[in-house]
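can u do me a favor
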């Protein structure tokens, strides 16, 4: 996304998971913009994501069993050099910890727009974090619990940056744009 100064800061995280029995292929793309206090680009990255088993189960349940979806989802940040596994849950993820070095009291909401052409995103309402100390960011995740550093809820997707860890400093802003897509398998 270009700012008034013509700067572009993008981190994309792609996730693919095929559902059983010829179901759709699902992709999560997380875009993280790290903006310095002066509005300049700090770093950019593209990585692939994993939808853990618990996330796949939750997606199936929401898609096929829910009569009225009322679940809210949230975006979180992971620490340096995370290792994401298909068995990860919010209560148990030995390969990573959540970054909480930001001013917001809770994880930021994933507020999605309208679905069109098998895609939906939060580009109109990005999850935004105000970094309040020097911190290393290694990835991002989606879950359905807003509690900062909480272990409740379902982990719906997580990804480690492929180009390595990224530093963010006091005063930086991390804006996360999530795009969810589905395609016939």
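np, heres the sequence
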């Amino acid at each position: 996304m270009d700012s008034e100064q013509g700067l572009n800061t993008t981190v994309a995280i792609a996730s693919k998971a095929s559902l059983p029995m010829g179901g759709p292929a699902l992709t999560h793309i997380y875009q993280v913009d790290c903006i310095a206090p002066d509005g300049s680009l700090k770093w950019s990255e593209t990585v692939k994501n994993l939808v853990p088993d618990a996330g796949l189960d939750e997606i199936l349940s929401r898609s096929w069993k829910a009569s009225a979806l009322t679940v809210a989802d949230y975006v979180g940040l992971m620490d340096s050099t995370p290792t994401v596994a298909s068995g990860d849950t919010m209560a148990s993820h030995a390969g990573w910890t959540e970054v909480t070095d930001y001013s917001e009291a809770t994880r930021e909401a994933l507020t999605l727009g309208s679905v069109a052409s098998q895609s939906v995103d939060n580009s109109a309402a990005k999850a935004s974090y105000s970094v309040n100390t020097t911190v290393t960011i290694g990835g991002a995740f989606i879950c359905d619990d807003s509690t900062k550093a909480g272990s409740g809820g379902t982990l719906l997707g997580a990804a480690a940056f492929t180009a390595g860890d990224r530093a963010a400093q006091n005063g930086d802003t991390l804006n996360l744009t999530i795009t969810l897509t589905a395609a016939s398998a």
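Confidence is low (pLDDT under 50) at residues 1-21. hope that helps!!
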